[in-house]
């Protein structure tokens, strides 16, 4: 058994019910990208369940042998030893993305999905991160990542996965989340602008939104108050309001 490397977030799944959920979802597509194949627990369950093509990214060179043996048994599997987020993943030709991903790349991966890829995705993330993605405006979990992801995706939280589903066991609970692309998602350029604006505004998340927005985008306070109201706080703004704020720069 391979010694797990903590810095690579190596907690390998052993719970079959989790793999079955991924297979049920993955079999709706033809070409998939897996982030962090590990020892191939999800990969081989999916490939046994249906005929799909999977490009599997894995960073740990020690796993080359395991990946090669999966591709020996399943011709639809193409392993790639590469960093999923550096350089950014190429997603041309892929219908959907999935993975039980190392928690330390969650932020960069979500940002890539939102700005560049916009593909359907099924991810196993830290439970608190899923709570944040699904949070309502005005709650403690609502933040930048909620706004960015929800402008592009409908977020569907799935089952909670306990530490006992992994070897070695992580200290935290995980949760499956499905991301369904929205047909009305703003353009990648607009998303980059929202990334900048939310970075500026959420640094003062409890302050009056109009005042913070006026400072961040350099527009008259009275004009912005008409758009967001006088007393509403940054963390109470609906995701769409950030687009409206940027649009107001042009008008
Ligand atoms: C949580 S484990 C999951 C492994 C496997 N999918 C499973 O379910 O058992 C995450 C995997 O991602 C790999 N990994 C870590 N950082 C990565 C990166 N930047 N790019 C690609 N893979 C990475 C780790 O080596 C590890 O095998």
From TrEMBL:
The UniProt record lists the keyword RNA-binding: yes
Annotated positions binding S-adenosyl-L-methionine: 11, 13, 36, 58, 83, 100
Annotated SMART domains: rADc
Family: Belongs to the class I-like SAM-binding methyltransferase superfamily. rRNA adenine N(6)-methyltransferase family.
GO molecular function, one term: rRNA (adenine-N6,N6-)-dimethyltransferase activity
SUPFAM superfamilies: S-adenosyl-L-methionine-dependent methyltransferases
NCBIfam families: ksgA (TIGR00755)
Pfam families (UniProt xref): RrnaAD (PF00398)
Protein name (database record): Dimethyladenosine transferase
Domain Ribosomal RNA adenine methylase transferase N-terminal: 25-183
Keywords: Methyltransferase, RNA-binding, rRNA processing, S-adenosyl-L-methionine, Transferase
Gene3D superfamilies for the chain: Vaccinia Virus protein VP39
Organism, scientific name: Hyperthermus butylicus (strain DSM 5456 / JCM 9403 / PLM1-5)
